[in-house]
Design brief:
alpha+beta, 9 helices, 291 residues, 12 strands, three-stranded antiparallel β-sheet
Length: 291
């Protein structure tokens, strides 16, 4: 859901009210690097973010914001109001609630997946690439990526950002990041080996990446159809998109987000540069040299 769209904001609240114990993840709609992400629980807390309340002083009609945002305007009242004992009454500020729809940043609101698949007891997500080389006739390429793993073991404490937010920029702020550097990036082969060795995946079923990649491709095809009219159509132009996916503990796939202007890692012990970054660069060069 996007809070900048009134219908989606109301739909998010309706779902939250129907699932009162659910956890929600809120991301700034124009943010990056995991900055400003909030994990909250319950419909009432979500309401405070989507429909902020303000306190109004009836003597001056001064509104002071409670849940963030810009300050409201003070309007003088008649003289007989002077001397009245100051009171503050909460009210719904419709003007503020709609301000985000006219240019201010809003929230991307998602139901949090509370039972993700874990690697060594830690949460992880799957990062994949989609290279859009042409829009007419369309040509785009899916490239399997890697796993980003949190440095802390997963727990029910949603205030533990290192356990719940796998974003690499957030993990880099971990106090022990320097000594653990590289351990938060795993190759797909390494992840599968771990899942097989722990019995989370039955080796007799074969690799699970092939069907998962097929599902990722179908998802990216839908994303391409939804965005193709907004892409530049010039010779030599391309868009490299990064898609974040996560797996439920039952191996069900869910899309988390799609990013533009994505970075390509220069390699680590688990992700050699010659097998990853260079392959993407070579494919970009090949596709962009087409007429």
């Amino acid at each position: 859901f996007c809070s900048e769209r009134p219908g989606e904001k109301l739909a998010a609240m309706a779902l939250a009210e129907a699932t009162p114990d659910a956890v929600w993840i809120l991301k700034p709609s124009r943010g990056n690097g995991g900055k400003g992400i909030e994990l909250i629980k319950g419909a009432e807390v979500l309401r405070e973010y989507l429909f902020p309340l303000v306190k109004r002083n009836p003597a001056t009609s001064r509104s002071t914001e409670v849940a963030g945002g810009e300050a409201a305007v003070e309007t003088p009242q008649p003289a007989e109001a002077e001397g009245r004992e100051e009171q503050e009454t909460p009210r719904f500020d419709k003007a503020y609630a709609t301000r985000a729809l006219t240019g201010g940043e809003g929230w991307v609101v998602q139901r949090y997946i509370e039972k993700p698949l874990l690697l060594q007891g830690r949460k992880f997500d799957l990062w994949a690439y989609c290279l859009v080389a042409r829009t007419t006739q369309h040509v785009w390429l899916f490239h399997p990526g890697y796993c980003k793993i949190s440095l802390e073991r997963y727990s029910s404490d949603i205030t533990d950002r290192f356990a719940h937010i796998t974003n690499a920029c957030q993990q880099k702020t971990h106090p022990k990041y320097k000594e653990s550097r590289g351990s938060h990036i795993w190759s797909l082969a390494q992840a599968e080996e771990e899942l097989r060795s722990t019995g989370q995946w039955d080796g007799e079923q074969g690799t699970f990446w092939t069907p998962l990649h097929d599902e990722m491709k179908r998802c990216m095809a839908c994303l391409y159809k939804a965005s193709k009219d907004k892409l530049e159509r010039r010779r030599g132009y391309f868009d490299l998109l990064g898609a974040d996916f996560i797996l439920h503990e039952s191996f069900g796939l869910a899309l988390l987000e799609v990013c533009f202007l994505v970075a390509v890692p220069l390699g680590s012990a688990n992700l050699p540069i010659d097998s990853f970054a260079l392959s993407i660069a070579q494919r970009i060069s090949a596709f962009c040299s087409w007429d």
